[in-house]
Amino acid sequence: xxxxxxxxxxxxxxxxxxxxxxxxxxxxxxxxxxxxxxxxxxxxxxxxxxxxxxxxxxxxxxxxxxxxxxxxxxxxxxxxxxxxxxxxxxxxxxxxxxxxxxxxxxxxx
Amino acid sequence: xxxxxxxxxxxxxxxxxxxxxxxxxxxxxxxxxxxxxxxxxxxxxxxxxxxxxxxxxxxxxxxxxxxxxxxxxxxxxxxxxxxxxxxxxxxxxxxxxxxxxxxxxxx
Amino acid sequence: xxxxxxxxxxxxxxxxxxxxxxxxxxxxxxxxxxxxxxxxxxxxxxxxxxxxxxxxxxxxxxxxxxxxxxxxxxxxxxxxxxxxxxxxxxxxxxxxxxxxxxxxxxxxxxxxxxxxxxxxxxxxxxxxxxxxxxxxxxxxxxxxxxxxxxxxxxxxxxxxxxxxxxxxxxxxxxxxxxxxxxxxxxxxxxxxxxxxxxxxxxxxxxxxxxxxxxxxxxxxxxxxxxxxxxxxxxxxxxxxxxxxxxxxxxxxxxxxxxxxxxxxxxxxxxxxxxxxxxxxxxxxxxxxxxxxxxxxxxxxxxxxxxxxxxxxxxxxxxxxxxxxxxxxxxxxxxxxxxxxxxxxxxxxxxxx
Lengths: 109, 107, 352
Ligand code: FES
Ligand code: FES
Hints:
The complex is a heterotrimer of chains A (109), B (107) and C (352).
Chain A: E1 6-8, E2 13-14, H1 15-23, H2 29-36, H3 49-59, H4 81-85, H5 93-100, E3 103-104, E4 107-108
Antiparallel strand pairs in A: 1-2, 3-4
Helix pairs in contact in A: 1-2, 1-3
Chain B: E1 5-6, E2 10-11, E3 16-21, E4 24-29, H1 34-40, E5 47-48, E6 55-56, E7 69-72, E8 75-79, E9 90-93, H2 102-106
Parallel strand pairs in B: 3-9
Antiparallel strand pairs in B: 1-2, 3-4, 5-6, 7-8, 7-9
Chain C: E1 2-8, H1 12-22, E2 28-32, E3 47-48, E4 57-58, H2 59-68, E5 75-79, E6 82-86, E7 92-95, E8 100-110, E9 114-116, E10 129-131, H3 132-140, E11 149-154, H4 159-168, E12 172-177, E13 185-188, E14 193-196, E15 200-205, E16 212-217, E17 220-224, E18 228-232, E19 235-237, H5 240-244, E20 249-252, E21 257-260, E22 273-275, H6 285-302, H7 308-325, H8 328-339
Parallel strand pairs in C: 1-2, 1-8, 2-5, 8-22, 10-18, 11-12, 11-18, 12-14
Antiparallel strand pairs in C: 3-4, 6-7, 7-8, 9-19, 13-14, 15-16, 16-17, 20-21
Bound molecules: FE2/S2 (inorganic) cluster (FES) (2 copies).
C-alpha cells in the first residue's frame, strides 16, 4: 500500500505516521493515538479504529484479537456544551452557573 | 439530480422548497437531508479538512464520520447527512473550527 | 425517565424486541437518533428474505409493519434522541441536542446494529468517494442520484442489490473492483458490469471532487473516470454503547470483529444488558428478527412476564429457525461466541 494514504480521515494521519509509532514500539491503538492524535478527531475513531488495527496487524506479529479497540468515552457522539449542561428534569448546577454569567467585552464581569 | 420518479418508491410527493448555499438559492424537497439535497444540485464539496485543507464531502451518510460538517443557520459543525432541509435554510461550507468568541463579541 | 425495558436502536431487531416485550405487558421505551423508527430499513428498497412468520416484503414495508404493530401497546418513543453516555449510577444519558437527561430501566436491550467499514486508498477523502450504504440512502431516503457513473470497490457483500438500484435510477456502473485473490477479469452477474478481481484502487485524483481513479489489475493498470466510488467494505457491530456499559468483549472475525460476549439468553456480561440484531454479529435480515425475538424472550423471562418453561420452548424453536435461516458460517461463529461467554478478551475496560 502507498504509505502516504490517510488512515484517520478526521486528524489526517497517514499510514506512514502510524508505522513510525509502531517502529518505535507502539503496539496498541491508544499508543498510536497518544503520539499522533489518530482517532482523536470529530468522529472519535468510529471510522479509523478498524483501519488502524489492520495496520498494527500488518506491521507486527499481533493477531487481530490481540489488538483491542480504542477506548470509547462519553460523549459517544458530538453534543453541544449547552445541551450537555442542561437537565430539564432536575436542577442543573452547571447550567444555572452558565446562565448567571454575564459577559462584558467577552470577559466575565 | 433529484429523482422525480423513483422506480420503486414512485413519484416524489414532498413539497419543493428553497435552501441557500452561500446566498445562492437551490431546489430541495421536504424531508431530504441537507447533504442529499446539495448532492442533487451537484454540490459535493461540503467543507474542508483542518490540517491539509482538502475538500470533504458526504462519506457515511449515517452520522458517524463527521465528513459532512457544515454551518447551518449560524450553527457550526452540523452533520448535514442527518439534518433535514427546511425552507429558507442558510448553509455555508464547513471551512474551519468555529470561532468560539464570536457569540460573545456580537452579544 | 423510567421504563421496565429500554431498547436502544429502532431498527428491525429493536422494533421486533419491543413488540415481543410489550406484548407481555411490560412497559418499553425505545430510543433512536432518527426522527423516524425503522433504522436502515427505510433505505432498503429490495425484497428481503424474512423468517416464515412474515410474508416477503421490501425493507421500507417491513419498517412500516414493525412500527404499526406497536400501536396500542405500552411503548414510549424517544425518537431524535441519542445515548451519549452512562451515569455513575448506571442510568443512561440521553440527549435530544437541547437537553441531557437520565433514563432508568430494569433491563436494557442494545440494538444499535452495525456500521460499514472503510477501505482506504490515496485520496479516498475526496468528495465523491463514499460508502455503498451512503449511496443507497441517498437514492432511497433523499431521492437523489449520487452521481452519473460509479465504481464499486470492495468485497461485494451487498453490491448486487445496490447495483440494481443504481442502474434503475440511471447511474452507470463502470466497474466493480474486488481485492479478493480470484484471478481474471470478467463481468458481474447478468448486468454486464466489468469486474476486476484481485485488483485495487491505487489512487484517486480530482480537484475538489473525485474525477479519476487508477486501478491496478493483474493485467496492468487502468484509469477510469467515475464521479463516485462506492466502498463496500463489509460491516462491523457498533461498540460504543456496550463499551460504555462496560460489557466484556471478544473478537470473532466471522461476526464482524469485536463484539460483546453474550450467553444463550443473549445476555452480556452485565446482567441487565442484552444484545440483539447486528450488534450480536453481522448477519441477514432473518437473523435480525429472530435475535430480536430471542433477546425479548430472555428479558421477559428475567422480568417474569413469561414463565421459564414456556421461554425455553420459545427459545429452542427460535434457535432452530436461526440455524436454518442464517449462513452456516455465521451460525457456527455465533455458537462458538456463546461458548466463549465466560472467557472474554477484553473486560473491565471502562474507567470513568
Ligand atoms: S477517522 Fe480517525 S478520528 Fe475520525
Ligand atoms: S456523512 Fe458521515 S456523518 Fe455525515
